[in-house]
Structures are given as structure tokens and as C-alpha cells.
Specification:
The chain has 172 residues and is an all-alpha fold. The chain has one domain. It is built from 10 helices and no strands. The longest helix is centred in the last third of the chain and has 25 residues. The chain starts with a helix and ends with a helix.
């Protein structure tokens, strides 16, 4: 599960050297994921096999940046209509990270950026994983999946489905 969280963190983020390395080492990564959870691995494999180094950046930008069709910030879906709660929401996440010694540079990203949340959870104790799965991820993922399906981000839906497979047994 921890490996899947880390892999999903990298794949949901803007394609970087780490992303490129993961794609290059896809067979090794997928073998480890299949050993951990075959359902999650199949979804991750579907995404990995659908992108390459050249189009990954363009795909990411077209879906999540310019102009953003869908958002990887949890607050965009979880606080719709309650924007006045954004400060408290972000401080709550940042406080949880700090409590666990997770060093996060908020000058680069907000604490509710999905890849940051997943990276944290790949290192955090099980109690944080349960809390985040129930409070944040379970309500966020269906909304992200709907947005991606409607706005041309079908390839990313495979990653959402992988994350749903991971979260579902936790929230039951």
C-alpha cells in the first residue's frame, strides 16, 4: 500500500525526473505493485502504458493547468461554497504534516495538493491513512473522477480508480 501511494503521488504530479524514472523503470515498479495489490497495479499499468515522456507533460498541463479543467487541490471539491473555511482546512493539513515530521515547502504547493497528500500518506502511520482516507480522499475522488471523465482527462481516471481501490477497504 505504501508503494502504491508513493507511485500515485509521482504519477499525479507534474511530470518530473522522478516521473520519467518511474516510467523508464515501469516493469520493475509494476512487478512490485502487482505483488502488493493486483487491482491497483492494473489501473496504474493502464495509465503508465498510455503516456510517454513526450506527451505526459502536455497531457498534465492541458488537464490541470492551462486553463485548468480539473483540479488536484482537495479544497476545490471539498469546500465548494465554503471558501471561508479554506484557511482552517489548509492549516489543519499542514499541522498534521508537522506533527508527523513531514517537511513540506508551502512556497511551492498548498498542503492539499493531491500528490503532496499521497506522499505524506506513503510515510505516515496507519491512523493518518485512515483519517485522510475517510475525511478527505473518499469524498474527493468521485468528484475528481467525474471532472476527468467529462473534461478529457480519461487517462488520469485510471489513477483515480487505483486510489479508490486503495481507499475503499480503509473506509469500510
Amino acid at each position: 500500500m505504501r508503494l502504491a501511494l508513493r507511485v500515485l503521488s509521482i504519477l499525479f504530479d507534474y511530470p518530473s525526473k522522478e516521473f520519467e524514472s518511474l516510467i523508464r523503470e515501469a516493469d520493475t515498479v509494476l512487478e512490485a505493485l502487482y505483488a502488493e495489490n493486483p487491482k491497483i497495479a492494473r489501473h496504474v499499468e493502464k495509465f503508465i502504458r498510455s503516456v510517454n515522456g513526450e506527451d505526459a507533460e502536455e497531457l498534465f498541463v492541458s488537464i490541470f493547468e492551462m486553463p485548468a479543467r480539473c483540479s488536484l487541490y482537495l479544497h476545490e471539491y471539498l469546500l465548494k461554497g465554503k471558501e471561508e473555511e479554506l484557511g482552517r482546512f489548509l492549516l489543519e493539513l499542514k499541522g498534521r504534516y508537522r506533527l508527523r515530521g513531514f517537511d513540506m515547502d508551502t512556497r511551492k504547493e498548498l498542503p492539499d495538493y493531491l500528490p503532496v497528500v499521497l506522499e505524506f500518506l506513503s510515510l505516515a502511520p496507519d491512523e493518518d491513512l485512515r483519517l485522510f482516507a475517510k475525511r478527505y480522499l473518499a469524498p474527493f475522488l468521485p468528484k475528481l473522477e467525474t471532472c476527468l471523465s467529462r473534461k478529457g482527462g480519461e487517462r488520469y481516471v485510471a489513477l483515480v480508480k487505483a486510489l479508490e481501490e486503495l481507499v475503499e477497504p480503509i473506509v469500510k
